[in-house]
Amino acid sequence: EKRKQLKPGFGMGAIARWIPAIDGIVSSELERVKDEESSLHSFFMTALTFANASTLLKTDLSLEEAATFIRFEETFINSTVMSDEDRVAFYKNPVFAKDRKLVFDFLRREIGERLSGKEVDDNFTHVIERTVEEGKDVDIQELVSEAYLLLMAGAGNTSKLLNCGLQHILSDIEWLDTLREELKSYSSESFLEGMKSFPMLKATTAEIERLFPAAPVLSRVVAKPFDFNGFVLEKGTKVLHMQTITHFLEEVYEEPYRFKPQRWLENDYSKKAQGTFGGSTHICLGMNLARVHIPIVLANILSNYDLVFKSEPDILLNFNYGVPQVADLMGVFRKR
């Protein structure tokens, strides 16, 4: 039911209409931080949060408020894998409690204004309209959670994908030059027709998704007992489903641990060999948003900036069942 409620806000058509606006936000954020050393993860999170605040959930978000939303999102996600006891203690942390209050008070005010007649053309309006059209009682808390998801969901994962992918693009000079040549014709309007004019950028995005899947393993709970290879899994058993294992099988992807975007130009891989966003009825609702954000951010950076690292960048891999990339790189965007 929650997926049905949110689907109008995350549909490709609903997102694609905002491509020029998203491009403008990314461009202005790069201009804001240029020539200053920045945490790349923090920059990407901020740019994507502002992009969502200008499109999916149109609202006036200050830089300080955006930082609070980001801090809450990053810490809240970490708490989801804690034990019940540790999570309760974590929620009592004064800093977390203060951030949580600001975030949800902000969203309740926004929703209150919408329900009082404020008209806004954004994706969240489609979500509210669905509630009204189906004659459901308006549940403020449900709308708050839906507004939050439109504003913040997936921003951290997309930022980590960009962080890891960008380092590999910059380390492959030949591919970097090829990409930049292709992007000479880039404009936000050209993206409105999809990626057909930018096959190399599309291949780069696919390779980033493959090599650095944001959620390589998903946790599941057995609903009905079953036998798997001689092991009986009882109802309630917690299991890990590694839906991205195909990403690293040599029989599917030659040299699977190598960053090689051109493989996507040379092969036609099965959709089942790409598990970054899951699949079937549980496929990630934010997939369309990530696939709009990533190429727009890469196009803006590679077309207009050199990224200078003061020290050799190093991405650590943390292979737990959440986000695997610990990638807080520091760099300076210099205008080309």
Task: Describe the SSE topology.
Layout: H1 2-10, H2 12-16, H3 19-33, E1 37-39, H4 40-53, H5 63-79, H6 84-91, H7 94-115, H8 123-133, H9 140-152, H10 155-171, H11 173-182, H12 188-191, H13 199-211, E2 218-221, E3 226-228, E4 231-233, E5 238-241, H14 263-266, H15 287-304, E6 305-308, E7 316-317, E8 325-326, E9 330-335
Antiparallel strand pairs: 1-9, 2-5, 3-4, 6-9, 7-8
Helix pairs in contact: 1-8, 3-4, 3-15, 4-5, 4-10, 5-7, 7-9, 8-9, 10-13, 10-15
Q: What characteristics describe this protein?
A:
mainly alpha, three-stranded antiparallel beta sheet, 15 helices, 336 residues, globular, two-stranded antiparallel ribbon
Sum this structure up briefly.
The chain contains 15 helices and nine strands. The strands form four sheets. The chain has a three-stranded antiparallel β-sheet. A hairpin with a 2-residue loop joins strand 3 and strand 4.
Explain what you see.
The chain has 336 residues and is mainly alpha-helical. It has helices at 2-10, 12-16, 19-33, 40-53, 63-79, 84-91, 94-115, 123-133, 140-152, 155-171, 173-182, 188-191, 199-211, 263-266, 287-304, and strands at residues 37-39, 218-221, 226-228, 231-233, 238-241, 305-308, 316-317, 325-326, 330-335. Helix 3 (19-33) packs antiparallel against helix 4, helix 5 (63-79) crosses helix 7 and helix 10 (155-171) packs parallel to helix 15 (287-304). It is globular, with a radius of gyration of 21 Å.
